[in-house]
Amino acid sequence: MGPAHEARDDGGGGGGMIAELAKSLSDLLTAERARFTVEHPRSVAMAKAAGAHWRGGAPMHWMNDWASPSPIFAAQGVGAQITDVDGKLYDDFCLGDTPSMFGHGDPSVAAAVSDQIKRGAGFMLPTASAAIVGKLLSERFGLPLWQAATTASDANRAAIRWARAVTGRPVILVFDGCYHGMVDDAFVVLKDGAPVMKPGLLGQVHDLTATTRVVAFNDLAALEAALAPGDVAAVLAEPVMTNCGMILPEPGFLEALRRLTREAGTLLVIDETHTISTGPGGYTRAHGLEPDVFVLGKAVAGGVPAAVWGVTAELSARMDAAQQRIGPGQSGIGTTLSGNALAMAAMRAMLSEVMTEAAYGKMLAGAERLVAGLNAVIAARRLPWSVVHVGARVELVFADPPPKNAAQMRKVLDHEAVEALHLWLINRGVLIAPFHNMMLVSPVTEDAAIDRLVAAVDGFAAAMGE
Predict the structure, then answer these.
(1) Domains in the chain, number
(2) Which one-letter DSSP state was computed for residue 354?
(3) How far apart, in whole angstroms, are the C-alpha atoms of residue 95 and residue 434?
(4) Could you give the maximum distance between any two Cα atoms of the chain, in Å?
(5) What CATH number has the domain bearing residue 316?
(6) Which of 334, 354, 374 is the last residue of a domain?
(7) pLDDT of 238-286, one tens digit each?
(8) In a 3-state reduction of DSSP, which class is residue 62?
(9) pTM (two decimals)
(10) Which of 189, 218, 415, 462 has the highest Cβ tally under 10 A?
């Protein structure tokens, strides 16, 4: 896999090697697809039946983004494992792409949700749990005042709307390749250095580049230039890029981001929906970040749809003033299900009983074991790969050194190789997130499961090297 992958990227020569790689990948994918179909007759049949009523045979289109030739239909999840309808058991390193980061079917969350649903799911009124959750959020993440949302997408939309209202500025700045859910303002990328709307964006009427500015992650000069006009209401950022392959901040980049935004009068919104894997207080607490707005979704309610966003006392006062200027009426912020009683009960259990220092200790130790195992495979087989991780989130990158921005990552992202690896793992009882090579370790992930994942990756590398 290693030398052939290098040949694919060299831009010339090596034609025989490239053809050999293509043939090897094609043959492997053909064989693995056939194996999946034979071993998963009920999932295949269910997908066909569901296709009569669900587009693509599944409730959401990304359920078809897995490398398997048809969706895997899950029967149940327990701890860090999933059983499908064909009785196949998987070590789960996807964990719902973060919502189940602390394990499936956690007893504390199950008890809290079961108790609350018997007493009502939502009343459009606060509950006793809401008061406790607010206190827990403030203590954990440091921002004093909070609001609830149903998803992180909703929370980011609220933060953007408030940023524009408070500053009177129209522009939002994001980083190329960012992840902020289904937020229109974030669907702008760089193509040949110029901002364009993200390819494949459906039904977009207005030109998003008119009010969204985009720069490369880790490019301080570009960031400073983008802020210079004084029209940027907020920078919406992940502290570590997680959507285009994991990209870590260069030393000093986030500190400079905070300094530059303050100098420009621009708010800083930190979206920790994925980087909550860092530790109990997220990347923000672990690295002393000082955002004006902190956004968290997915894992905060243990899989129950919920998100939260917190603000500083200073920003809260500016929000109050902006609201008084505008007067009463529909704010365009919030949905009926936001902050419902069921979500609050789940968040209370997560924040007080599940997302503990001890749980993170187990996750981080497991992630270190996984990183060491993958690095050992890379070294033993002399592969031009690398491993990047933040806390319990680990990424296997088919490049060495790992890219420092999205443009570099796009050049080395081999979609066919990624698909082949994922299907290979699925057929060997291992699930990783269907998007690039992201893996999560939960506090209930066993060492044996980590070792099985490493062995499966090693087997894939061996198969590609034959």
Answers:
(1) 2
(2) I
(3) 11
(4) 70
(5) 3.40.640.10
(6) 354
(7) 999 999 899 999 999 999 999 999 999 999 999 999 999 999 999 999 9
(8) helix
(9) 0.93
(10) 189
